[in-house]
Design goal:
Elements: E1 9-12, H1 13-16, H2 26-37, E2 41-47, E3 50-55, H3 58-67, E4 69-71, E5 74-76, E6 96-101, H4 109-118, E7 128-133, E8 140-152, E9 164-167, E10 170-176, E11 231-234, E12 246-251, E13 254-258, H5 259-270, H6 274-282, H7 286-294, H8 300-320, H9 322-330, E14 336-339, H10 352-356, H11 368-382, H12 394-400, H13 402-405, H14 407-424
Parallel strand pairs: 11-14
Antiparallel strand pairs: 1-3, 2-3, 4-5, 6-8, 6-10, 7-8, 9-10, 12-13
Helix pairs in contact: 5-6, 5-7, 5-8, 6-7, 8-9, 8-11
Bound molecules: zinc ion (2 copies).
One zinc ion binds near residues 207, 209 and 215.
Protein name: NADAR domain-containing protein
Organism: Pinctada imbricata (Atlantic pearl-oyster)
């Protein structure tokens, strides 16, 4: 069956030359190809550095694309489209490669087919098995590494598949090009299950702590009910401990209306969104600043540095806002500060009542902000007597960030970083990230 609608495959000649003096001939390449796909080879032509390879059936084409070829001990990969043409091929028509990792080899292909049906994607190839490659030469061995890959019809614009999936009752990870690097897990804030959101929840409301229905966190019925005596809960714009408390503070030479403004502004700048940064600076209150900041897609750098930034902000607030400093100074030595506005990352994940009456090791949140404030409070107490801490720490901070003063330059650098990120994104990135930023 000679199908003329089958597109050619491409191979860069430079990819298969072992040395300049010995160039591979069409006869030699034909020989290598025939050993892999038999007499399915139809035409082989070299145009400058580019080989065009026409085959007679789709299976052979897929086989070459998926498995590559071993030529003089070099593992060679073929191109699905002309690697030198700039956008001549409609990228939307190209099949999308999907990789699944984390599944035991014993899981049957039929379970993967079920998962793909559930995800509403259409396979255009078989399910294939990845092989271990030599770390330097990239040469493929005959040993499987357990990962599966396959090609599917391209997804509609804007759609991507979830990173974490369940296949045959097992958790597995799914990767494809164009998948957002940072993925938010589904979480229902009504029943706290992780496979749907509140808007399509059909369950009774459940307790966020024990996940049972019929009561709220902090209720005596909750198995984790206990009065927490040694804590200092805080939240909201009227509480000086809260980031929402209106106060004028300077960070990296920029004046802010609250610690929250400072935090969201830094996020915007570090994630390369100068417009958002300006809107945050002008936002009338902390909540408005947070809302703008929440819309900014965080980059890896921000995710890995934001708690350090938060610490700097709290320290600066302590130096610049006397009321805040006094609150920390006068707090009981063994108290645990805890943010109580339902935030799972910065706070206990519960409200004030829920926090006060739930065993602290069962709070759903990490209370990162509470811990930071505790750390700064310790420093304040240590310096209580000598009180050498009234000099703003700003000097040291600005030294650290001198090169960031020039926002234009910084944005340029950041864009360059995130551009190079996006090229390599998608395939090997196992990062999961599920909380607010
Ligand atoms: Zn639910
Ligand atoms: Zn409960």
């Amino acid at each position: 069956m000679d199908d003329r609608t089958i597109k050619p495959l491409y191979l860069k000649n430079s990819d298969i030359q072992v040395c300049e003096s010995k160039r591979i001939t069409d006869y030699e390449l034909m020989d290598y190809l025939s050993r892999c796909i038999g007499d399915s080879l139809h035409c082989l032509q070299l145009d400058r550095n580019l080989w065009r390879i026409y085959v007679k059936d789709r299976d052979s084409r897929n086989k070459l694309l998926n498995e590559g070829l071993d030529i003089q001990n070099i593992a060679v990969s073929f191109y699905d489209t002309n690697p030198y043409s700039s956008g001549a091929t409609d990228a939307n028509q190209r099949p999308l490669k999907l990789r699944i990792s984390g599944l035991p080899l014993s899981v049957d292909d039929s379970a993967i087919h079920e998962l793909l049906i559930k995800l509403e994607v259409k396979l255009t190839s078989k399910i294939l098995y990845e092989k271990i490659r030599h770390p330097v030469t990239n040469k493929m061995t005959s040993v499987l590494n357990g990962n599966r890959f396959m090609y599917i019809e391209p997804l509609p614009e804007g759609r991507s598949l979830p990173r974490v999936n369940n296949c045959a009752g097992l958790r597995c990870l799914l990767f494809h090009y164009g998948q957002p690097k940072v993925e938010r897990k589904l979480l229902c804030t009504n029943c706290w299950k992780t496979d749907h959101t509140r808007s399509n929840c059909k369950n009774e409301p459940c307790c966020k702590v024990c996940k049972d229905p019929g009561h709220s966190p902090g209720d005596e019925k909750c198995p984790f009910y206990e009065h927490q005596k040694e804590i200092t809960p805080f939240s909201g714009a009227t509480d000086v401990l809260s980031n929402f408390f209106p106060c004028s503070m300077d960070l990296y030479g920029v004046q802010h209306k609250s610690a929250e403004h400072a935090f969201q502004y830094t996020k915007a700048v570090r994630c390369g969104d100068l417009n958002a940064a300006n809107s945050i600076k002008d936002a009338k209150d902390a909540l408005s600043a947070k809302r703008i900041g929440d819309k900014i897609k965080p980059n890896e750098q921000w995710i890995s540095t934001k708690s350090k930034v938060m610490e700097e902000i709290v320290e600066n607030k302590c130096v610049q806002v006397p009321m805040f400093k006094e609150k920390l100074r006068s707090a009981k030595r063994n108290t645990l500060f805890v943010e109580t506005s339902h935030n799972d990352e910065w706070g206990s994940g519960l409200d004030r009542e829920g926090t006060l009456y739930t065993k602290k090791n069962h709070w759903p949140g990490k209370n990162t902000l509470g811990s930071i404030i505790g750390k700064v409070a310790d420093k304040v107490r240590k310096r209580k007597k000598s009180d050498q801490w009234s000099k703003p720490k700003q000097k040291q901070l600005s030294k650290e960030t001198t090169n960031q003063r020039d926002i234009v330059k910084m944005l340029r650098d950041l864009r360059a970083t995130s551009d190079s990120d996006s090229v390599t994104s998608g395939q090997n990135d196992d990062t999961e990230y599920d909380s607010s930023d």
